[in-house]
Backbone:
């Protein structure tokens, strides 16, 4: 499993527009093969910080996602709302 954490610091006054823009991306991504979890979270202390937390079964599933129509059409628009962004990929540090 691979976990993606994509943190977005959204420009002042653009948070609701950002959330509306991402609704379809989230809904369609959740239905993709290999998607375990795909949600958007809002920072409690700073509501301009919105973070996608995604869990995928494999690198192949992520590649398919990155090439999907909903990803390629929405992500460039998302970037235009950002003051700052950070993307990190994780795997399990240990397995029980």
Residues:
């Amino acid at each position: 499993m691979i976990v993606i954490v994509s943190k977005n610091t959204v420009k002042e006054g653009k948070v609701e527009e950002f959330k509306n823009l991402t609704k379809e991306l989230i809904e369609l991504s959740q239905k993709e093969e290999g998607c375990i979890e795909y949600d958007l979270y809002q920072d409690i202390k700073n509501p301009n910080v919105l973070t996608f937390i995604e869990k995928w079964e494999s690198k192949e599933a992520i590649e398919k996602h990155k090439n999907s129509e909903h990803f390629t059409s929405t992500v460039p628009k998302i970037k235009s709302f950002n003051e700052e962004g950070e993307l990190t990929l994780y795997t399990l540090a240990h397995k029980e």
Helices lie at 15-30, 59-66, 69-79.
